[in-house]
Amino acid sequence: MTHTVQDRTSDPAVAGGARQVHLGRWLTLASQRFDARVLALMAVNDQLPLALGNLAARGRLTASHIHITRHLTRGGLRLSDLARVAGVSKQAMGKLVDQCDAWNLVRRKADPRDARARLVVFTDAGLGWLNAYEQAVLQTEEEMRSELGKEVATVIAIGLEAYAA
Q1: Where are the alpha helices (DSSP H) in 17-108?
Q2: Other beta carbons less than 10 A from residue 95's beta carbon
Q3: Would you call 70 helix, strand, or coil by DSSP?
Q4: Across the chain, what does the average pLDDT equal?
Q5: 28-78 pLDDT tens trace
Q6: CA torsion angle for 72, 74, 77, 83 (degrees, to 10)?
Q7: Which backbone phi and psi does 122 adopt, to 5 degrees?
Q8: Which residues does residue 119 pair with via DSSP β-bridges, in sequence order?
Q9: Whole-angstrom distance between the N-terminal and C-terminal Cα of the chain?
Q10: Comparing C-alpha atoms, which of 123, 113, 74, 92 is closest to residue 83?
Q11: How far apart are CA 73 and CA 121, in angstroms?
């Protein structure tokens, strides 16, 4: 069900008014929908190893796992840096990296610049995951443009980019 700003006070489902239906809420819902579509496309991507596709199809790979995909550079990052750029705690990112390591998406290796430090890097399967992610994002963006109209999608993108800066 969609709600407009005009009906936020008349619909009992959104009786909280501005507490429940505001721009931030719409951004959250849109982001959740976008991530869900990306994961759905990845679940059926025949370029991914079967095990990863099955994990995505069963909902075991979530938007949380996309944090690593969005923020981990191809050259790798220290866990603390990955957590910082993803906007999560080091402990939360550590658990996520452990999961992704168990699924062979990433691995930890010695940092060549500092023997005491470890880098989180994509495995070959993880690079395949990253490529599938990039394809799924492009397709999801195109679907969004098609649904909203190119002009509206462009205005949204420009506005969000300006707001986030």
Answers
A1: 23-43, 50-57, 63-71, 79-86, 90-102
A2: 12
A3: helix
A4: 86
A5: 999 999 998 998 898 888 887 777 777 777 777 777 787 788 899 999 999
A6: 0
A7: -70, 145
A8: 78, 109
A9: 31
A10: 92
A11: 8
Residues 27, 141: Cα–Cα separation, whole Å: 15
> Across residues 125-139, what is the average pLDDT?
92
Separation of CA 14 from chain center: 27
* pLDDT score recorded for residue 76: 95
Tokens coding 108: 């930890």
d(CA 88, CA 66): 13
Question: Could you tell me if residue 104 is left (phi over 0), alpha (psi between -120 and 50 degrees) or otherwise beta?
Answer: left
Tokens 């999608």 found at: 153
Residue 12's CB is within 10 A of a number of other CB atoms, namely 5
Helices 124-148, 150-164: inter-axial angle, 10-degree rounding = 120
**How many helical (H) and strand (E) elements, i.e. helices and strands, does the chain have?**
7, 3
CA dist 131 and 107 (Å) reads: 17
- Quote the pLDDT of residue 31: 92
Rounded Cα distance, 40 and 75, in Å: 27
User: Alpha carbon 144 to chain centroid distance?
Assistant: 16
Predicted confidence at residue 159, as pLDDT, reads 96
Q: Identify which has the larger pLDDT, 106 or 52.
A: 106
